[in-house]
Design a protein that fits this description.
The chain folds into 3 domains: 3-236, 3-Layer(aba) Sandwich (Rossmann fold); 251-314 and 317-431, ANL, N-terminal domain (Rossmann fold, 3-Layer(aba) Sandwich), CATH 3.40.50.12780; 434-546, 2-Layer Sandwich (GMP Synthetase, Chain A, domain 3). Helix content is 39%, strand content 22%. Helix 1 (3-13) packs across helix 2. The chain has an 8-stranded mixed β-sheet. Strands 15, 16, 18, 19 and 20 form a 5-stranded antiparallel β-sheet that branches. The chain is of the alpha/beta class and 547 residues long. The longest helix is centred in the middle third of the chain and has 21 residues, at 291-311. A hairpin with a 6-residue loop joins strand 23 (459-465) and strand 24.
């Protein structure tokens, strides 16, 4: 039985069980297993009315919702290839992806999304809204996939972020999902312990991202209630209302939570701030902590930390974090307040996951051991290489780029890493992001960028430059003063060798956003685009020093 057949079987076995919820304020819109199957059937009836052939691409452009899940499962069940797209991305970029994969149909969450694509691309495929799709009659065979899906059969094309170039369509096949879903189920079994427990999961990350999609498929493959965010501006309220056992995060949200807590304590001052500082010092001493340190930690837990935990819900067992390395200080902050953070590392090309923290043995700053069936090693350059059943078969219509990253059975991740004697991996940065000074020193920018960003409340992004130059410089965005940046750099540089010090900076007035094409869909820096946009600012940093 493949991953999709298993999901359909579970839904059919217990049709009255609630499996999905959309949270709106303090209220919920729910879907039982039977109702989800009915919605899937309506979507399948519509797809059949369009006489699509197995293997046709079907683009899916919508915000997360119960209907998104039903549409996705209907596409897979009909033997079509799903192409999930990010609803917040610029229409011109979305049009470029669709021109690449030539979908036979574009399924949109609403008319505004459909019309935006039609304006950006007059030759776009037929666009239909969810209202049109789900008003169709239910297909009788809606309780099982229509076509037997063999391991080699492609089920999705997910476009990569495109941090330094044009996004590429990553093909994922049935065999990739057949391996990955059981792996994630196994890790969640370790976290939850009780096999009879129904997982309560909160989810705010778009399903068009591979890791987010895997979580959705995994949730439907076990006893879970998956609650979907509908308003990112109300995340705190939605989390409280959902009372999750766990949820998937990007580092930015966890950094924001930590920063918000520390800012509030700083403003309040008094006993709470003093207690927090004492507890933080005690925690930093680790195993050498004294009896008095344990007293301070216990007091802080009952007076300060309990308030933070209550906002994240009384059931929270762990936070799961992926997409980028999480600052060790932030992971330690959550451990200190009693909430473990489990890190995940992977790429779309590895079906989202290569490593996952074992809940029983979490080592801060590392992303856990390789998952079952996956081999990882370091090339001489320090690049991480991966092979196993979760590795994608190739990029859509890009044989040369496929050949450049799949060599002798190994996938070249482009990431720098290191592994300890226990098999726990740490991610250092991207190989292609290395800055090579004219002195010959190679510098991974990400660790320095993270440290500087965390020391600058109000900053949005930090990007280092200096390739081919004699020293590093920084571009900073957000609500920060030059004085604050200068002070943060002085502190950062004090502990660095001369070649890793940052000697100049510019605070940019223009924001760096997804909408202006300078961030990827999942919030990563488009370094080449940023360097091109702010070429004048960068050149002035070096001209000023040379003058």
């Amino acid at each position: 039985m493949n991953f999709l057949e298993n999901i359909f079987q579970r839904l059919a076995q217990d049709p009255g069980r609630v499996v999905l919820r959309e949270v709106r304020g303090a209220s919920f819109t729910t879907a039982s297993a039977g109702e989800l199957l009915s919605s899937i059937g309506a979507a399948r009836a519509f797809l059949r009315s369009r006489r699509l052939k197995p293997g046709d691409r079907c683009a899916l452009l919508a915000h997360n919702s119960i209907r998104w899940v039903a549409m996705d499962l209907a596409i897979l069940a009909e033997g079509l290839i799903a192409v999930p797209l990010y609803a917040r991305q610029a229409p011109a970029e979305l049009a470029g992806m669709m021109k690449d994969c030539s979908p036979a149909l574009l399924c949109c969450g609403d008319a505004a999304l459909r019309d935006a694509i039609a304006s950006a691309w007059p030759g776009a495929p037929p666009g239909v809204t969810f209202d049109e799709i789900f008003s169709a009659g239910r297909v009788e065979a809606g309780d099982s996939p229509a076509h037997p899906l063999q391991d080699a059969y492609p089920v999705a094309i997910i476009y990569t972020s495109g941090t330094s170039g044009e996004p590429k369509g990553v093909i994922l096949k049935v065999g990739n999902l057949n391996h990955m879903v059981p792996c994630t189920l196994g890790r969640l079994d370790l976290l939850m312990g009780d096999p009879g427990h129904t997982d309560r999961i909160f989810h705010y990350l778009p399903f068009c991202f591979a890791g987010s999609w895997i979580l959705m498929l995994t949730a439907l493959s076990r006893a879970s209630v998956l609650t979907l965010s509908t308003d990112l501006t109300q995340l705190a309220d939605e989390i409280q209302a959902s009372q999750p056992d766990y949820f998937l995060n990007v580092p930015a949200l966890l950094e924001r939570i930590r920063g918000g807590v520390e800012d509030q304590l700083q403003k309040r001052g008094g006993m709470a701030l003093g207690l927090y500082r004492r507890a933080k010092q005690a925690w930093a001493r680790g195993q050498s902590a004294s009896f008095a340190d344990h007293i301070w930690l216990a007091l802080a837990s009952s007076v300060v930390f309990s308030a933070v935990r209550s906002k994240l819900g009384p059931n929270l067992r762990a936070l799961i974090c992926g997409s980028a390395p999480l600052a060790v200080e932030t992971q330690e902050f959550f451990r200190m307040i009693g909430i473990p953070v489990l890190q995940v590392y992977g790429l779309t090309e590895t079906t989202a996951i290569c490593t996952m923290d074992d809940p029983r043995r979490v080592e801060p700053g590392r992303v856990g051991p390789a998952i079952a069936g996956v081999e990882m090693k370091l090339a001489e350059s320090g690049e991480i290489l991966v092979r196993g059943p979760s590795i994608f078969p190739g990029y859509w219509n890009r044989p040369e780029q496929t050949a450049s990253v799949l060599q002798d059975g190994w996938f070249l991740t482009g990431d720098q890493g290191e592994v300890d004697e226990r098999g726990n991996w740490r991610i250092i940065g991207r190989v292609k992001n290395l800055l090579i000074l004219n002195s010959g020193h190679n510098i991974a920018p990400e660790p320095l960028e993270d440290k500087l960003l965390h020391s600058l409340p109000g900053a949005q992004q930090v990007m280092l430059v200096g390739n081919g130059k004699s020293y590093l410089a920084a571009l900073v965005t957000g609500k920060v003063t030059r004085e604050a940046v200068a002070a943060a750099l002085e502190k950062l540089n004090a502990d660095l060798p001369h070649y890793r010090r940052v000697h100049a900076f510019q605070v940019l007035e223009e924001p760096v956003t997804i909408e202006n094409g300078l961030l990827t869909a999942n919030g990563k820096l488009k370094r080449d685009a940023i360097a091109a946009r702010f070429r004048g600012d960068i050149e002035s940093l070096y001209a000023a020093k040379q003058a």
